[in-house]
Amino acid sequence: MTGRYAIYYAPEADSPLWQRAAQWLGRDAATGAHVTQYIPQGFDGATFAALTADPRHYGYHATLKAPFTLAEGTSEEELLSAVEEFATQSFAFSVEISPQILGNFVAFRLVEKSLDMQALHEDCVCEFDNFRALPTYAELERRRKAKLNDQQDRQLLEWGYPYIFDDFRFHMTLSGRIEDAAIRQTFLDAAMAFFADDIGTHRFGSLSVFHQPDRESSFNVRARFPFLG
Question: Tens of pLDDT along 55-71?
Fold first, then answer.
């Protein structure tokens, strides 16, 4: 099965936040290696591993342009070159972040609205869309199971992903879906304690391309490009 690429924000691989996130999720997407997972108080190993299975698969990141198959006539080399060129003209910026609840998930989110982040997201969605193959009927139907509104469905058809532009919510996911509110709060409390040193102003200074060889494999960092604007 054809692999996929995604344009993500991911902290630098040698940063404390990235290293702690790798321990939290039990995998380092920069190296592809599994690491000994931190198990917070109140959880057993199997339960916590299950709660973090989804973000462990995707790697620690924030989605800027969602996973896509390369369009016919395009190549990985061309994609990486385009992202690198984009990064050379982009400027770093800083925003406060903290673990928060987003629906049934726990994730690092922005403490306040950031026009810089919104612009980065929108630019990534548009700038690299010529590299995206059209979604299959099965992919469209899978997305539509989330009961999209009319705008989200139009965005799915036009851009391959429903949660973009006005529906974009920056998040670096720390959990899978947690239906139980009490467990969700316990999970958030544990994240607040474990990531205490990472809460506050965060500098966004790079763009990453992640790659998934096939749908069963995990996503790993293929390349990271610093902002040089």
Answer: 999 999 999 999 999 99
